[in-house]
């Protein structure tokens, strides 16, 4: 399904970034990083007053030649980015939405771990497994 | 966005200017050539018109033409650029050249853009612009920096754009860059100028109309011909010129010709005059353009362009082009050197300006006006029918096209061609004309009309052109009558690119469009447009456009910094592909600002890696190093995929941790040589320990003090053999010539590949000095040498031999030390600079790591390919200074001179070996070992001393007492006692009267009093006190096991001096550390009791008089735990040592005399001790042998250890110190000083003994199935009567537990002596017969004489009262029967002098037979001086029983 899944901290550094191993990892890093501009733009587009009601799912951030980049921002300004192959037409908005929801739930679990230090890179096996599950389906 | 220097309007206007051709006669060319210019070049700086022009449009409206520029070019007939869409190779080369020569200014205006959290410094990392091109930009740049709209400039982009637009080939579908007019230039020096004009005119006509040339293209068939007569003021006849001009005016009309007078100045005269050179900024560009335009000949040596051999070499081969480019550059340089316009005065400049203005306003504009009018008329006349007519014809011909088109061409839409005179083209022509004279409104409507026509004809190329120009003219229209039609542009670009496949035009269109969009703040659209224009075919263009797009992103209202960064990286990538390395580096560096330190390590590493590589190729090693270091130190080597293709790294590899460098002076020690054990000294293998260092320093200070008669010299500096980061490195260390200096360098391999260093050696600099000469003389011949130049190695090895490590292997990520040796052969000042090595990675690691690590070159590397010669400096920063206030507030570091040793003249070098040195001893065990001193240097050695932390552990014996009995060499020594013994005479009973010797402490190397004994310095008894070079000597050494069990670290410091005085080094030291494991042996406790019996009759009178008699009980317990090894202990002898007492005899019961102690057994020995007269501070040694041989305890080693262990026992214990003083004052005869203090001491004194018991034992130990006899001695110091003393001082341990008291506790001197103490003043004894027979029948009263002996124990006079009366208070009447009475005086008052013994004769009277206790006399005593004190009852003696027998 996804070719790259990334979790970005509020301060815009990566907490977790994983891509399909066969592909160029660096390219995804660049893509995800660049997408943060769009995320910020989208967040700032929503007014301050409306910030509470803002929907977490940001939708398609931008399409590149080969990929589609989707974004999601939690209330604590942690960003999730999912990069999907453009050729994969089976993925609709709803599927992406549910992927983000799953990601968010799993992320919440990670944060609930008392041994996890907020701000550290995520090394949870459970989270890893869940992300793999989302990516494996593609291959 | 890159802010352009020109405004948008200016830029677009300048992109499309009226083109004017020049045809020049040879003579005229010669005239201009004087100025180093051709005619068109001559005009070029003056081509912008400063004044306004006016013209009328077809509707007779006056149109103002402002700021018009015309372009004047030589006619070049050869087509350089094929009209296809792709730029030619030459053009690419030119553009690339233009871009690469244009670099950002170094130290340019710092330009920080704040976007969100990011502060971007856009014009950072500027590279030096060394091209003349830069000069004209500088002015504009500074101008711009003051304007408020300034953001960032990308001059290379503008240069590219300008060049690109200039080099646009003339196309058929548009006329903007077709020639409108032709200047025909003839010199006045021509014989018949008019004829020449005619010729040129014909020539022009031929070029335009003959059809021979497709190039250049002409706007209108009847091109404006403007006749210019060029007159050289310096040569020609002015009148003639004027007359020719008159003639011309007649012929061509006043508006069609001009007389231009130039060269008013002679070249020679004008040298001193400064004339501005307006050409310089135009020329090199124009030359390059010229070069691309087809004349591949430098314009400097070009003759008439029309005479060029057009069939000459074609710009096909890249090499040729390169050569030309180089030539052009060279030409530019030459041209720049030779100034332009040397023959022109300012007046001439004005004339030229005037000429252009005249030409434009009188010739060109009217010409254009006329043509517009004509075209307009044509169009208007056709207008009525054209629309309907054309559409009708189309219908009639069934959609057929204008005749010239075939169906095939129709399909190939770009190939649609109109004939030159087609009406659609006339509209376009008119539009272009209007556009050129800035009549944008009319131009727009014409373009619009043309567009419609073209579109309906499906002539896509034409349509796109019209669309493009329509959009541009709509934009340029003032007052904004209609919104800018951005979609026109988009359509145009799309058409050019996709339909016509003409990237060239598409690019031009995109450039214009982007500029317009930017001016309207539509950055997002501009960025999209620019990004769309990037393509695979042209890296340079893609790079430039991406960079512009990136700039657009940060100029958006919400700056998109990350997009900026990303596109910068893309741009950098393309730049690097295009070979624009500097630009690539700049892009990456700018992008880096966004990625830096934000946690995107993979991306960051990638950028760093690229920066590093680019910097390296650009020969900026510092930047490369820092970039690579960043990658490596961040341990982000997960990006192994990137580094797999890493073929060159520029790093000082491996890392050297300079501050961890250690320097060792001296030879590396052999620790063991056969059975010899060398002194441990200092070695590089030891870790530095601050406490140990302090300890050694203290020891050295002690020994130096003792060598200098107790004073430490002010210049004293502890010897440091091994320097590291924690030692004091402020002074230049001293090294000795011919002794090696070992430098330990810490290498770290940060990489995941193993590294091999080969031929590693130190680099040094050496200044020769002869210290033996006076200082001023030494300065004269100060010669400096160095091994930095490899050729000098041979020679420098004679001065300082440099060791080379052939190979040094570093595993991946390993930290390893290398030890490099230098051996100085001369005296002087040495500076160790660094080290050199060859570096290579191991070939075995496989192909993935093709790591040729390059190190900062110090010279040409050996062309080996796999290894490079590297050099790294060792620079050590000293410790931070923190003494003064300034130092505290600032960060300053002191010097570190670790690596700058001073090489001094030779010094003696001592080596010490130990033989038969034990590692384990029983507590108190005496062992004899040997020590060998060896002087291995060429200088005699003297003043050998040793100091130790445990001075009681060893002794060299006393030199004054010859000990001939001990064998001097260790080989003859087998199982022989360490003691000196005498066989006891056969018949003597063991334990009988002791042998007595007198010995003074001074004989054992211990001075009397504090200083000599408190420090542990011992002089080593060398024969004749000097050790000659190469000489060695062996000395016996006795060791005694420490009193406490456990492992003891014992440190020796040997001190020695050179026999040759006056060297820089006053002394040298040698350290030795041993570890001794002590195990428990015996525990000896001793008690002294006052003997109550009177000395026996046979005792000497003297002793008797001194009433000294004491019982000493010695408890010996075997506390050894090693039951297997130690079988039993024998007490061989008990000796005493004291100044006043001696053991007299053993009074044990006879059967106990054999004193064997098995494990855990305890034995008791009783001795009688007697007091003896002190002899001049001499110690009395008394030996009571319990075995069959007497050990002479007063000799080495027994006495040595006795003195070493107990510096007069009382001084060890602080509380007694007061008393010592008291005693001293008394012994000095100071009068009875009075006071309670004196009293107390006096009183206490009488309870004191000062007797040391030495228990000498033998232990039978089984070792390796062999019985070994070990010997040892234990000391017990008896101090107070009745108090137990123990050989194991547990007291000290107890003391450790005492609370720390910060106030010194006041000694309790004021307290009076206790009753208990006072009651010991007088010792009483009753002397009487044990039984007495008396015939009571005969005599009822029995009188028995009793002698009461009173002895004064104290040293003061004592008043004594003896009361003989029975106590009447006793309630019991028991004694009624058994009572007796004392006869005579019942009370005596006596005075006893110090230690006086007095006998009082008494008589007791008994009435009955029986047993009586005579001990009833009560004795009261008081010190004579102390009147206030009452008498104290003295301790009563034991019951004195007398038996009275009735003798019948």
TrEMBL record, chain A:
Q: Which GO terms describe its biological process?
A: endoplasmic reticulum to Golgi vesicle-mediated transport
Q: Which terms are listed as keywords in the entry? A: Cytoplasm, Endoplasmic reticulum, ER-Golgi transport, Golgi apparatus, Transport
Q: Is Endoplasmic reticulum among this UniProt entry's keywords? A: yes
- One short Pfam name that applies is Sedlin_N
Q: Which InterPro entries match?
A: Longin-like_dom_sf, Sedlin, TRAPPC2L
Q: Which residues form a coiled coil?
A: none
One annotated Gene Ontology cellular component of this protein: Golgi apparatus
Keyword Cytoplasm applies: yes
Q: Where in the cell is it found?
A: Cytoplasm, Perinuclear region; Endoplasmic reticulum; Golgi apparatus
Q: Where does the protein principally reside?
A: cytoplasm
Family of the protein in this entry = Belongs to the TRAPP small subunits family. Sedlin subfamily.
The record ties this protein, via PANTHER family, to: TRAFFICKING PROTEIN PARTICLE COMPLEX SUBUNIT 2 (PTHR12403)
Protein name per Swiss-Prot or TrEMBL = Trafficking protein particle complex subunit 2-like protein
State the organism of origin: Esox lucius (Northern pike)
TrEMBL record, chain B:
Q: Specify the TPPC8 C-terminal Ig-like domain's residue ranges.
A: 1321-1423
Specify the domain of life of the species encoding this protein: Eukaryota
Residue ranges of domain TPPC8 first Ig-like in the record: 685-922
Domain TPPC8 third Ig-like: from-to ranges: 1073-1276
- TPPC8 second Ig-like domain location: 923-1070
According to the UniProt entry, which residue ranges have a biased composition of type Basic and acidic residues? 883-899
Q: Which GO terms describe its cellular component?
A: TRAPPIII protein complex
**What InterPro entries does the record point to?**
Ig_TPPC8_1st (IPR058541), Ig_TPPC8_2nd (IPR058538), Ig_TPPC8_3rd (IPR058540), Ig_TPPC8_C (IPR057651), TPR-like_helical_dom_sf (IPR011990), TRAPP_III_complex_Trs85 (IPR024420)
One Pfam family of this protein, by short name? TRAPPC-Trs85
Q: Where is this region: Disordered?
A: 875-899, 1209-1236
Q: What is this protein called?
A: Trafficking protein particle complex 8
């Amino acid at each position: 399904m996804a070719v790259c899944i990334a979790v970005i901290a509020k301060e815009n550094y990566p907490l977790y970034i994983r891509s399909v191993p066969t592909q160029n990892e660096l390219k995804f890093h660049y893509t995800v990083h660049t997408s943060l501009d769009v995320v910020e733009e989208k967040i700032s587009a929503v007014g301050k007053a409306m910030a509470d009601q803002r929907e977490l799912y940001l939708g398609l951030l931008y399409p590149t030649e080969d990929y589609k980049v989707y974004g999601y921002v939690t209330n604590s300004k942690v960003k999730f980015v999912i990069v999907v192959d453009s050729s994969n037409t089976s993925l609709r908005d709803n599927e992406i939405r549910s992927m983000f929801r799953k990601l968010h739930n799993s992320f919440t679990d990670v944060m609930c771990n008392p041994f996890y230090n907020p701000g550290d890179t995520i090394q949870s096996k459970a989270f890893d497994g869940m992300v793999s599950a989302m990516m494996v389906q593609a291959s | 966005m890159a802010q352009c220097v020109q405004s948008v309007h200016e830029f677009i206007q300048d992109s499309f200017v009226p083109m004017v051709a020049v045809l020049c006669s040879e003579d005229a060319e010669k005239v201009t050539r004087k100025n180093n210019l051709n005619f068109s070049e001559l005009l070029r700086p003056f081509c912008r018109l400063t004044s306004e022009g006016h013209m009328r449009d077809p509707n007779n409206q006056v149109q103002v033409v402002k700021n018009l520029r015309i372009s004047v070019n030589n006619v070049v007939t050869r087509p350089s650029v094929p009209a296809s869409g792709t730029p030619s190779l030459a053009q690419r080369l030119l553009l690339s050249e233009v871009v690469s020569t244009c670099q950002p200014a170094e130290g340019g205006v710092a330009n920080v853009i704040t976007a969100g959290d990011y502060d971007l410094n856009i014009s950072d990392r500027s590279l030096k612009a060394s091209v003349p091109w830069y000069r004209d930009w500088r002015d504009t740049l500074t101008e711009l920096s003051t304007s408020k709209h300034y953001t960032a400039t990308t001059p290379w982009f503008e240069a590219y754009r300008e060049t690109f637009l200039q080099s646009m080939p003339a196309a058929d579908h548009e006329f903007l860059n077709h020639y409108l007019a032709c200047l025909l230039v003839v010199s006045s020096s021509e014989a018949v100028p008019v004829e020449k004009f005619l010729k040129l005119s014909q020539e022009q006509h031929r070029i335009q109309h003959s059809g021979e040339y497709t190039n250049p293209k002409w706007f209108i068939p009847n091109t404006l011909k403007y006749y210019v007569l060029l007159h050289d003021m310096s040569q020609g006849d002015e009148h003639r010129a004027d007359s020719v001009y008159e003639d011309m005016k007649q012929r061509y009309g006043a508006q069609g010709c001009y007389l231009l007078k130039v060269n008013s100045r002679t070249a020679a005269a004008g040298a001193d005059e400064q004339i501005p050179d307006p050409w310089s900024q135009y020329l090199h560009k124009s030359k390059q353009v010229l070069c691309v335009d087809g004349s591949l000949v430098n314009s400097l040596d070009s003759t008439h362009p029309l005479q060029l051999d057009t069939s000459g070499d074609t710009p096909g081969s890249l090499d040729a082009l390169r050569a030309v480019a180089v030539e052009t550059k060279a030409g530019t340089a030459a041209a720049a050197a030779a100034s332009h316009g040397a023959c022109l005065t300012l007046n001439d400049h004005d004339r030229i300006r005037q000429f252009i203005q005249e030409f434009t306003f009188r010739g060109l504009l009217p010409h254009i006006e006329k043509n517009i009018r004509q075209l307009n008329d044509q169009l208007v006349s056709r207008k009525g029918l054209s629309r309907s007519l054309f559409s009708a014809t189309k219908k009639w011909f069934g959609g057929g096209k204008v005749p010239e088109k075939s169906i095939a061409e129709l399909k190939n839409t770009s190939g649609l061609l109109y004939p030159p005179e087609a009406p659609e083209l006339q509209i376009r022509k008119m539009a272009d004309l209007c556009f050129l004279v800035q009549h944008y409104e009319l131009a727009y409507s014409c373009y619009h009309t043309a567009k419609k026509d073209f579109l309906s004809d499906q002539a896509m190329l034409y349509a796109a052109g019209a669309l493009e120009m329509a959009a541009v003219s709509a934009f340029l229209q003032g007052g904004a009558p209609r919104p800018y039609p951005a979609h026109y542009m988009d359509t145009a670009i799309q058409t050019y690119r996709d339909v016509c496949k003409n990237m060239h035009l598409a690019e031009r269109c995109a450039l214009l469009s982007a500029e317009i969009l930017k001016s309207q703040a539509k950055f997002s659209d501009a960025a999209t447009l620019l990004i769309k224009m990037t393509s695979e075919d042209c890296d340079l263009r893609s790079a430039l456009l991406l960079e512009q797009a990136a700039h657009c992103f940060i100029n958006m209202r919400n700056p998109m910094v990350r997009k900026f960064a990303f596109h910068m990286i893309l741009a950098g990538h393309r730049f690097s592909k295009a070979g624009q390395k500097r630009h690539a580096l700049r892009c990456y560096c700018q992008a880096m600002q966004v990625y830096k330190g934000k946690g995107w390590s993979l991306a960051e590493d990638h950028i760093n890696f690229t920066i590093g590589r680019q910097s390296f190729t650009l020969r900026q090693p510092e930047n490369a190093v820092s970039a690579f270091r960043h990658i490596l130190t961040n341990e982000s080597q997960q990006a192994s995929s990137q580094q797999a293709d890493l073929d060159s790294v520029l790093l000082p590899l491996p890392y050297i941790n300079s501050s961890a460098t250690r320097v060792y002076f001296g030879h590396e020690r052999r620790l063991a040589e056969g059975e010899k054990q060398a002194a441990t000294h200092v070695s590089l293998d030891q870790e530095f320990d601050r406490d140990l260092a302090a300890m050694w320093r203290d020891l050295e200070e002690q020994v130096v003090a003792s060598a200098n008669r107790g004073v430490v010299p002010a210049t004293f500096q502890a010897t440091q053999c091994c320097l590291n980061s924690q030692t004091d490195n402020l002074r230049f260390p001293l090294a000795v010539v011919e002794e090696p200096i070992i430098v330990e360098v810490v290498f770290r391999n940060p990489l995941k590949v193993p590294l091999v260093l080969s031929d590693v050696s130190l680099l040094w600099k050496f200044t020769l000095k002869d210290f033996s000469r006076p200082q001023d003389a030494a300065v004269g011949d100060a010669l400096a040498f160095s091994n930095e130049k490899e050729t000098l190695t041979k020679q420098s090895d004679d001065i300082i031999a440099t060791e080379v490590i052939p190979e040094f292997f570093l595993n991946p990520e390993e930290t390893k030390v290398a030890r490099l040796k230098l051996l100085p052969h001369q005296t002087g000042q040495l500076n160790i600079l660094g080290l050199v090595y060859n570096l290579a990675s191991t070939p075995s690691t496989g192909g993935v790591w093709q790591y040729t690590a390059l190190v900062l070159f110090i010279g040409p590397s050996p062309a080996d390919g796999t290894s490079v010669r590297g050099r790294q400096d060792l620079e050590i920063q000293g410790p931070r200074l923190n003494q003064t206030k300034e130092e505290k507030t600032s960060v300053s570091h002191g010097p570190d001179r670790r690596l700058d040793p001073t090489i001094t003249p030779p010094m003696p070098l001592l080596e010490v070996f130990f033989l038969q040195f034990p590692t384990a001893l029983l507590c108190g065990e005496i062992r004899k070992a040997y020590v060998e001193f060896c002087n291995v240097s060429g200088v005699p050695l003297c003043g050998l001393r040793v100091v130790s932390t445990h001075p009681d552990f060893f002794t060299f014996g006393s030199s004054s007492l010859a000990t001939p009995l001990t064998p001097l060499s260790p080989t003859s020594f087998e199982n022989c006692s360490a003691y000196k013994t005498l066989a006891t005479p056969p018949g003597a009973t063991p334990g009988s009267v002791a042998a007595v010797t007198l010995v003074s402490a001074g004989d054992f190397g211990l001075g009397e009093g504090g200083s000599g004994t408190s420090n542990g310095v011992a002089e080593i008894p060398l024969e004749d006190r000097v050790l000659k070079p190469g000489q060695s000597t062996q000395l016996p050494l006795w060791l005694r096991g420490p009193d406490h069990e456990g492992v003891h670290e014992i440190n020796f410091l040997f001190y020695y001096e050179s026999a040759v005085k006056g060297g820089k080094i006053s002394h040298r030291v040698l350290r030795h550390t041993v570890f001794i494991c002590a195990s428990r042996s015996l525990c000896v406790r001793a008690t002294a009791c006052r003997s109550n019996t009177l000395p026996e009759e046979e005792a000497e009178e003297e002793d008797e008089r001194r009433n000294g008699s004491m019982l000493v009980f010695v408890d010996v317990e075997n506390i050894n735990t090693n039951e297997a090894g130690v079988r039993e202990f024998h007490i061989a002898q008990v000796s005493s040592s004291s100044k006043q007492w001696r053991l007299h005899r053993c009074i044990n019961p006879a059967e106990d005399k054999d004193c064997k102690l098995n494990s855990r057994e305890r034995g008791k020995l009783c001795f009688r001790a007697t007091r003896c007269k002190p002899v001049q501070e001499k110690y009395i040694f008394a030996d009571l042998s319990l075995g069959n041989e007497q050990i002479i305890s007063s000799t080495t080693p027994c006495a040595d250890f006795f003195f070493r262990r107990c510096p007069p026992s009382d001084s060890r214990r602080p509380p007694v110190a007061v008393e010592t003083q008291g005693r001293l004052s008394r012994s000095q005869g100071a009068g009875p000083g009075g006071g309670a203090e004196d009293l107390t001491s006096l009183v206490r004194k009488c309870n004191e003994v000062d007797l040391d018991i030495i228990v000498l034992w033998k232990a039978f130990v089984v070792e390796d199935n062999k019985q070994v006899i070990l010997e040892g001695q234990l000391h017990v110091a008896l101090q107070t009567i009745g108090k137990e003393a123990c050989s194991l001082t547990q007291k000290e341990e107890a003391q450790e537990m005492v609370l720390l008291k910060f106030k010194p506790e006041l000694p309790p001197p004021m307290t009076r002596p206790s009753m208990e103490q006072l009651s010991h003043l007088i010792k009483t004894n009753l002397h009487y017969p044990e039984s007495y027979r008396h015939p009571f029948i005969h005599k009822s009263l029995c009188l028995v004489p009793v002698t009461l002996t009173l002895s004064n124990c104290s040293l003061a006079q004592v008043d004594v009262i003896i009361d003989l009366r029975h106590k009447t208070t006793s309630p019991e009447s028991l004694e009624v029967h058994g009572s007796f009475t004392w006869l005579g005086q019942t009370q005596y008052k006596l005075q006893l002098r110090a230690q006086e013994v007095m006998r009082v004769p008494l008589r007791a009277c008994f009435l009955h037979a029986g047993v009586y206790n005579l001990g009833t006399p009560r004795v009261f005593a008081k010190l004579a001086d102390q009147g206030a004190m009452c008498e104290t009852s003295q301790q009563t003696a034991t019951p004195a029983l007398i038996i009275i027998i009735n003798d019948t």
